[in-house]
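Notebook entry, structure prediction.
Reason for the run: the old model in the group folder had no record of what sequence produced it. Starting over properly, with the input documented here first.
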Amino acid sequence: MTVFEAAAGPGETPPADAVAPRDSTSDAPTSVARLNATIRDFIARWNTVWVEGEITSWNVRAGNVFARLKDTQSDAQISIRIWSSVRGRIPSDLGVGDHVVAAVKADYFVKSGDFSFAVSAMKHVGLGDQLERLEKLRLQLRQEGLFDSSRKKRLPFLPHVIGLITGERSDAEKDVRRNAELRWPQVRFRTEYAAVQGDRCVPDTLAALKRLDADPEVDVIVIARGGGDPQTLLGFSDERLVRAVAAASTPVVSAIGHENDHPLLDDVADLRASTPTDAAKRVVPDVGEQRALIAQLRSRATSRLTQRLSHDIAQLEQLRSRPVLRSPAPIIDARAQELWLLQSRGRDTLTRQLDTAGRRTSELRASLRALSPAATLARGYAIAHLEGGVILRDAADAPAGSALTITVDHGSVAARSEGEIAEGS
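New structure, fully documented this time:
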């Protein structure tokens, strides 16, 4: 089986003049021209097919376009040619990075041995369908709360380091840096370059965002691009990128530089800037404005302090002008007289209370003395105590021989009972 028989597949036959094994040997090889002609004739039988891909190169020479088309999911590529007769029938804004579908037919050049595809029609991938999918994704993300202002992080007043994701040597990078440095000359940047359109846009931006978000010195991240049509901005509506920005711990500023059809990145970013220049103005303060504000605040503070001091001085002067402070002696004399009267009144009151208390004490002392056993003893009476100090009240409680203690007015004597004495003895 020849290579053409294998390539033709079941039910197909190779060209009649295809190079067969019997036609070529090491002693009698076939010619390059015949081999190329065989390949051309075989490829010419292929039909036109519609293919989808991304334009990775676009060179115009003598009215013809020589380009390459890359698969959207892998690194596979094909070479395409657009003749000048066909170029007038395709959109004039096609270029590198565009996502297209094209009608191509295989073409093999015998003279050079080049294999490519001739384009008979080409158009952008259905933008209406893409925008419809984007609107559905926008609605889903909004329902998830990714657009809520409550989850958006505040930008620092003066970031120590600004992370910048943009295209290498792009105008957007120059605009952000120039305007930020004009506003605050000491501003520092950490720039990560990424493709801002095409197949590498999303993976490059995701990788740059991951690196900057992990850097503890970066206080804010700016994703900048110099605008573009909706087709070239599709990468900034990719769900992977949008969710990564929403999950970033560092505040993210979207500065894509567009007006109408804004990508989803604008809705989920913590701040949307209309242009890269506007992003620079929103991220760093203006040193001139801040100096003017400080001068204004200092002037206001000085004015307030002067006003307060003047007010307090006037209050003190007003107090000093009052009679009580201008001549305090009469008031002191009047108060001294009142104080003397109060002291005199208090002294008289205290004396009366002490006299009354003294008399009451004497009366209580006399009453106490009259009720005291000592007074009874003084009149000649005595008190007999049994052992243990119990007062003897009944003669029967002291039988003969009982030890007694007799207490008199002055002292006590010991005695012993001789028993109860009969009445009349």
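Summary: The first helix runs from residue 3 to 8.
The old model has been moved to the deprecated folder.
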